[in-house]
Specification:
The protein is mostly helical. It has a single domain (2-150), classed as Four Helix Bundle (Hemerythrin (Met), subunit A), CATH 1.20.120. Helix content is 72%, strand content 0%. It contains four helices and no strands. α1 runs antiparallel to α2, α2 runs antiparallel to α3 and α2 (53-80) runs parallel beside α4 (118-147). The longest helix has 30 residues, at 118-147.
Amino acid sequence: MKNKSLAVALMLAIGLAACLYAKDAAAAPQGGSAEPEANEAPPASGYYTYAQKAQFIEDMKRELQMIDDELDLLADKVDRLGGEAKAGAKAKLKIVRAQWAQAEKELQRAENATEPTWNDVKNGFDKVYGDAKDSFEKTRQWINDRIEPEMPAKTQ
């Protein structure tokens, strides 16, 4: 039950972030901005200015922690797998954890950024975070695809 609650909370947080981004993007002025094209995903850092650095750090720490908690839940699921699936899942989780560690290092760089380096550091975080998030999503799907067939069918 706790796992379901955490998963629901994670989905709600992601949905809220997406709604807030959509609201901000609609209100943003059009023209020569550094914002992505309409078909691109927003960067993890959004459009935080240097003056908003503390909020950025707080928000990204919270996001990284939520994903780290989800990785712990996935590791628990992996422990229930058997054979090759378990070995494959553990290898994938190890890679994702290494990517999250790199994202945490980039966030530390952001904490130490100065105003002149802010955009470069923020862009570096976005790249690492985006790669890690993509890897996390693929790994979660891969693990869930292997767990679902092993779950007993519910009888009605």
